[in-house]
From TrEMBL:
<dbReference type="InterPro" id="IPR050176">
    <property type="entry name" value="LTTR"/>
</dbReference>
<dbReference type="InterPro" id="IPR000847">
    <property type="entry name" value="LysR_HTH_N"/>
</dbReference>
<protein>
    <recommendedName>
        <fullName>HTH-type transcriptional regulator ArgP</fullName>
    </recommendedName>
</protein>
<dbReference type="InterPro" id="IPR005119">
    <property type="entry name" value="LysR_subst-bd"/>
</dbReference>
<dbReference type="GO" id="GO:0003677">
    <property type="term" value="F:DNA binding"/>
</dbReference>
<dbReference type="InterPro" id="IPR017685">
    <property type="entry name" value="ArgP"/>
</dbReference>
<comment type="similarity">
    <text>Belongs to the LysR transcriptional regulatory family.</text>
</comment>
<comment type="function">
    <text>Controls the transcription of genes involved in arginine and lysine metabolism.</text>
</comment>
<dbReference type="InterPro" id="IPR023490">
    <property type="entry name" value="ArgP_gammaproteobact"/>
</dbReference>
<keyword id="KW-0805">Transcription regulation</keyword>
<dbReference type="Pfam" id="PF03466">
    <property type="entry name" value="LysR_substrate"/>
</dbReference>
<dbReference type="Pfam" id="PF00126">
    <property type="entry name" value="HTH_1"/>
</dbReference>
<feature type="domain" description="HTH lysR-type">
    <location>
        <begin position="2"/>
        <end position="58"/>
    </location>
</feature>
<dbReference type="InterPro" id="IPR036388">
    <property type="entry name" value="WH-like_DNA-bd_sf"/>
</dbReference>
<keyword id="KW-0238">DNA-binding</keyword>
<dbReference type="GO" id="GO:0003700">
    <property type="term" value="F:DNA-binding transcription factor activity"/>
</dbReference>
<keyword id="KW-0804">Transcription</keyword>
Length: 296
């Protein structure tokens, strides 16, 4: 039989990124959290954490975290059926990993009514769409949005649609660098803007234009900052059509190469045994994303 106080300590350390913040969240001393982790490791007979900064779950730790995520959701279903079990009367906290561009565009509209109807608050973890699945594999989120179709063991994936990206730049940037027209070779020689080291969307775009070598770029790990930097003329970048409608209407951004979009599929991954709450959220996301995203 599991001691869920020990599992809660493990989840808190991983989700909060350290023992001190985990202790604050649990209302315990740091030494008490450490003792719970040591006791859990003694019971399973092997380490559950790698003492790094931040701490990372071992393979057995990830399995325990996956179990904790699903138990929390199933407990929520039981509390809905037996309200007296939820003594604190607190809303459910749902930890989800998603990419910054979804957060900056369609996500809030998709989940606002769902949160109100189901008394849910989100703990959002922002990851690039190509790597968000590692959070589920690591056991520290209940669901994620990413570009990968294949789910981790014990989870399902649902195709929501695709985010359509186009290459944009400011009129001043275009006048300065492309007075005689935009070519792939010139694009490789002027600054681009890339979201982060795990973002290879611009690389794919350049390859589609026939450029497979390197190019210079700024790193900007913020969707809003990405748009502001592009509008200011610091570089060109690929952005979701959904995000820049106002800037296009005001003439602050111009598409660099017409009819050259990149569609990035968006998959919703969630635990198979995640209970009715995750099922309802899945249906809501399918409904709203089907309107706001393009067909993949």
């Amino acid at each position: 039989m599991f001691d869920y106080k020990l599992l809660a300590a493990l989840a808190a350390v991983v989700e909060q990124g350290g023992f001190e913040r985990a202790a604050q969240m649990l209302g315990l001393s740091q030494s008490a959290v450490s003792q719970r982790i040591k006791l859990l490791e003694a019971r399973v007979g092997q380490p559950v954490l790698l003492r790094e900064t931040p701490p990372q779950a071992t393979e057995v730790g990830r399995r325990l975290l996956n179990h904790v995520q699903q138990v929390r959701l199933l407990e929520r279903d039981l509390q809905a059926q037996v309200p007296a079990l939820n003594e604190a009367g607190l809303p459910e906290r749902l930890r989800v990993a998603l990419n910054a561009d979804s957060l900056a565009t369609w996500w809030a509209q998709a989940v606002a009514q769902f949160c109100a109807d189901n008394r849910v608050v989100f703990d959002l973890v922002v990851e690039d769409q190509d790597v968000g699945l590692k959070r589920m594999r690591g056991g520290d989120v209940a669901a994620c949005i990413c570009a990968s179709e294949r789910p981790v063991a014990g989870a399902r994936s649902v195709l929501l649609g695709a985010m359509r990206y186009r290459a944009f730049a400011s009129p001043e940037f275009i006048a300065r660098h492309f007075s005689s027209g935009v070519t792939a070779e010139k694009l490789a020689q002027v600054p681009a803007i890339v979201f982060g080291p795990d973002d290879f969307l611009q690389h794919r775009y350049m390859a589609a234009l026939g450029v497979n070598g390197g190019f210079v770029y700024h790193l900007c790990p913020s969707s809003e900052g990405f748009v502001r930097m592009t509008c200011a003329g610091l570089g060109w970048g690929l952005m979701p059509e959904l995000q820049v409608q106002a800037e296009l209407a005001r003439g602050e951004l111009i598409e660099l190469v017409a009819d050259q979009p990149i569609d990035v599929p968006i998959y919703w991954h969630h635990w198979r045994n995640g209970g009715e709450l995750l099922d309802r959220l899945t249906r809501r996301l399918q409904q709203v994303a089907g309107i706001m995203l393009v067909s993949a």
